[in-house]
Design goal:
Beta-lactamase; five-stranded antiparallel sheet; 16% strand; binds glutamic acid
Length: 386
């Protein structure tokens, strides 16, 4: 049996007995979900998706759509326009709180409902065009065509008076313009897109790998946009328990009311998890437990010391009239600093130095410029191969 799948099955077995929490019941479609469902999936940099449990179960994406629609708004409208419309501060309040910044009326962040509705308003077009663009980007993140569950959408729309009220409040502050109903309907539709844990893992993976879908290999958003979205997930993704989540789990995440959860381990993997029973904050009890376990077992806490500070591979070879320095592995700031200190002894000002970084798996721009600027060689005597 696959050793990784074996590890995942162990986590599943450990988490399965948890029966705390209650299923969301504000619409009949969510209330009738089987509360015992449990599944999760991970995807690594080479695009292998591994899943366990009820991994074929489909459920609506709900609030997990918010960071991905934020990515679309950032792509279409740019960071400054988005920041004028919505803040990036954790609200410390429940997801549907009616709380807007005092004078400006700006919602606290794009991951509470008010901020998500404002973000959706930034996507151009009428309800249909907006919905089309949103379903397209969610599909690009997932690597397959996703669909809307029409009956969930109808129920969301029939019961969504509070979200409609938030929309009108935002309109009264001129935070959103256009027809409020069109915007709110597009928001209800984005919440009603059907996914599985495998889809969620690939969506999270696309953020983890800098905007490139690890399965399809397609770039969905720029590295900067992926970083912006993941930053906001880190501070605001888990409703009013985001601070405790960062402490205990340390992975940027976003949960939804149907019991789904995505978590991002930058450069390492994406996770999607699902189980319908929710805690008092609206986060799935067992999906959160799964991600907490994975973070612990795989040493993935964001603020933990990671391998980028390990010794870089350096070989120094003296050749006629100069020195060739071959670098390997992954080179970030700390690695570049180490390379410099090794080279200080090997390189004299009067020799030609060739730095061969072609085998470096990932050369961080900060490392490349540090090496160029600080190698004690006059520029004419330096050849930098990358
Ligand atoms: N459709 C839900 C709402 O906007 C989504 C909430 C959630 O997943 O937290 O009320």
């Amino acid at each position: 049996m696959d050793p990784i799948l074996e590890m995942l099955d162990d986590v599943l077995a450990d988490v399965a007995p948890l029966t705390d929490g209650a299923i969301a019941d504000y619409i009949p479609e969510l209330a009738s979900a089987d509360p015992d469902q449990l599944a999760f999936a991970v995807v690594g940099p080479r695009g292998r998706v591994i899943s366990t449990g009820d991994d074929r179960a489909e459920f609506t994406i709900q609030s997990i759509s918010k960071p991905f629609v934020l990515a679309l708004a950032l792509r279409e409208r740019g960071r400054e326009t988005v920041l004028r419309t919505v803040g990036v501060e954790p609200s410390g309040e429940p997801f549907n709180a009616i709380s807007l910044e005092d004078v400006t009326g700006r919602p606290a962040n794009p991951l509470v409902n008010a901020g998500a509705i404002a973000t959706t308003s930034l996507i151009e077009g009428d309800t249909e065009e907006r919905t089309g663009a949103i379903v397209d980007i969610l599909s690009a993140f997932a690597g397959r065509s996703l669909w809307i569950d029409e009956s969930v959408y109808r129920s969301e729309s029939e019961t969504g008076h509070r979200n409609r009220a938030l929309g009108h409040l935002l309109r009264s502050y001129d935070i959103i313009d256009g027809v409020v109903d069109d915007i709110v309907e597009a928001y209800f539709r984005q919440c009603s897109v059907l996914v599985t844990v495998r889809d969620l893992a690939v969506m999270a993976g696309t953020l983890a790998f800098g905007g490139v879908n690890p399965v399809t290999g397609h770039r969905v958003v720029s590295e900067r946009i992926a970083r912006d979205v993941v930053s906001i997930m880190a501070s605001c993704g888990m409703y009013d328990s985001s601070g405790e989540w960062l402490l205990r789990v340390g992975l940027p995440a976003k949960s939804g009311v149907s019991g789904g959860l995505v978590a991002v381990a930058p450069s390492q993997f994406g996770v999607g998890a699902f189980s319908p029973r929710l805690d008092d904050h609206g986060n799935s009890v067992r999906a959160a437990a799964v991600v907490e376990r994975l973070s612990e077992d795989f040493g993935m806490h964001l603020l933990e010391i990671h391998e980028t500070i390990s010794e870089p591979a350096i070989s120094v070879e003296r050749v006629d009239g100069g020195v060739t320095v071959r670098l390997g592995g992954e080179l970030g700031f700390a690695g570049a600093e180490r390379v410099l200190s090794v080279l200080k002894d090997a390189v004299r000002a009067d020799v030609h130095v060739t730095v061969d970084a072609r085998d470096v798996a990932r050369l961080h721009p900060a490392a490349a410029s540090l090496l160029r600027a600080r190698l004690d060689v006059d520029p004419g005597s330096l050849t930098f191969l990358e």
